[in-house]
Write a structure and sequence with these properties.
The chain has helices spanning about 5-30, 50-65, 75-115. By secondary structure, it is an all-alpha fold.
């Protein structure tokens, strides 16, 4: 699986899906704010008791690591930790994906250079400065 590009992409998709699902579960495990918490801190990005909202938040912080900045500074530490951990995982994941894209394009360009570098032009005539008045007589 690790020896082919298809295997690399399959592994990345599976790892991304696992991290997004575990991020949603971690957000749900962090739970709601306590009654003693600051009211502004409880204006959370997503309701931890709603699976769809937690999944959407996990998707957002994974593929857009700056999303966690919407959490107020007075939010509980468990919420900050979940967002920070999965935002970091998403940042590293995006770097790996971009690295794989760059590596694939580099390999394609090297292959094209090897295949198309040599131009064989036997029995041809090269005319420099071709215009509409140039006549070719053979």
């Amino acid at each position: 699986m690790l020896g082919t590009h298809v295997g690399h992409w399959t592994l990345l998709v599976l790892a991304g899906a696992f991290l997004i699902l575990s991020g949603a579960l971690a957000w749900m495990a962090a739970g709601r704010c306590e009654p003693s918490d600051d009211d502004d801190a409880c204006l959370e990005l997503a309701d931890p008791q709603q699976w769809t909202e937690a999944l959407w938040l996990a998707w957002g912080i994974f593929f857009d690591p700056g999303t966690q900045t919407g959490l107020p500074p007075t939010a509980p530490h468990r919420h900050k930790f979940v967002l920070l951990a999965f935002s970091t995982c998403g940042f590293v994941f995006n770097l790996v994906v971009l690295g794989l894209i760059v590596s694939t394009l580099h390999n394609v360009l090297q292959r094209w250079e090897r295949l198309h570098r040599v131009i064989v032009a036997n029995d041809h005539t090269v005319i420099l400065g071709w215009t509409d008045k140039t006549q070719c007589t053979m």
